[in-house]
TrEMBL record:
It comes from the Bacteria. Belongs to the CvfB family. It comes from Bacillus xiapuensis. This is S1-like domain-containing RNA-binding protein. SMART domains: S1 (SM00316). Residues 6-66, 153-215 form the S1 motif domain. InterPro entries: CvfB_fam, CvfB_S1_2nd, CvfB_S1_3rd, CvfB_S1_st, CvfB_WH, NA-bd_OB-fold, S1_domain, WH-like_DNA-bd_sf.
Length: 287
């Protein structure tokens, strides 16, 4: 097997000779350069080294003793470092140069492209010119590393990263190792690919996968809605022309809430003695 066929993988080579800019390593048939920037210490002739093979920016086959966590056929979670809207996003795989995950492998809508700090599950692929690129894990790959959830997971909070996005929903791999799905109705906005999410388990399927909601629990949602209404009241010196008699479309336009959610939140404020209603207006109670 030629060294070219080992691009994107690790192999053991012998130090053949030292050069001013690094070391030439050999498998007995071919030589490859270990640049001094990719060497972690000084080496002696005849020493055996485990190295990672790749092509540098000039298209030359190169070795590095800095072994990345991923390789061809080996998957791992890696962090996004930068975005170029024209060509894709860059990933830190533990080498000097970041790896490109190309635009063709990313969602069609750039609004859900990963941002720096997001985590994606990838492996390496080698193109026809023997250059390395990132390849996202397929659903089948995620399935192979997942564990089945039990009914004990129901209503529990989970965290994870999205590994696939679509209009109908988002697919998630959780810290626990569960494979999950967020239906579009269970999120206020679509998470980015690789974004860390936290939600609650609303269903455990027979196959051990879970359904996740990113929406607040009803009581939490009610508190948030009540705070939103009260803040609006205070911004208007304690009075607003909205009450439980207001039209649903007016409530939706002003607060982004359904009339039912608005009435529940208003009811909470009234129960807590913070507001009262009069002539289709709502007022803050004075101390």
């Amino acid at each position: 097997m030629s060294l070219k066929e080992l691009i994107g993988q690790t192999t053991t080579l012998e130090v053949a000779r030292k050069a001013p800019f690094g070391y030439f390593l050999t498998d007995g048939n071919e030589d490859v350069l270990l640049h001094i920037n990719d060497a972690e210490r000084e080496y002696e002739e005849g020493e055996k080294l485990e190295v990672f093979l790749f092509h540098d920016s000039q298209g030359r086959m190169t070795a590095s003793t800095k072994i990345p966590e991923i390789s061809v056929g080996k998957y791992g979670w890696v962090k996004v470092t930068d975005i170029n809207p024209e060509i894709g996003v860059f990933l830190d795989i533990g080498m000097q140069k970041d790896l490109l995950l190309g635009a063709d492998d990313l969602p069609a809508h750039k609004s859900v492209w990963p941002k720096p700090g997001d985590m994606v599950y990838i492996t390496l692929r080698v193109n026809r010119n023997y250059l390395l690129y990132a390849k996202l894990a397929s659903d089948q790959v995620i399935q192979s590393i997942s564990i089945k959830a039990t009914r004990k997971a129901f209503n529990k909070n989970v965290q994870g990263h999205t590994y696939r996005t679509a209009k109908v929903g988002s697919w998630v791999y959780t810290i626990e190792g569960f494979k999950g799905f967020i239906h579009e109705s269970q999120r206020q906005q679509e998470p980015r690919l690789g974004e860390k999410i936290e939600g609650r388990v609303i269903d455990v399927k027979e196959d051990g996968t879970i359904n996740i909601s990113l929406l607040a629990r009803k009581e939490e949602s009610q508190d948030l809605d009540a705070d939103k209404i009260f803040d609006y009241l205070m911004s208007r010196n304690g009075a607003m022309p909205y009450s439980d008699k207001s039209m649903p479309e007016d409530i939706k336009e002003r607060f982004g809430l359904s009339k039912g959610a608005f009435k529940r939140a208003l009811g909470k404020l009234m129960k807590d003695g913070k507001v009262y209603q009069e002539d289709s207006w709502t007022f803050v109670k004075k101390e």
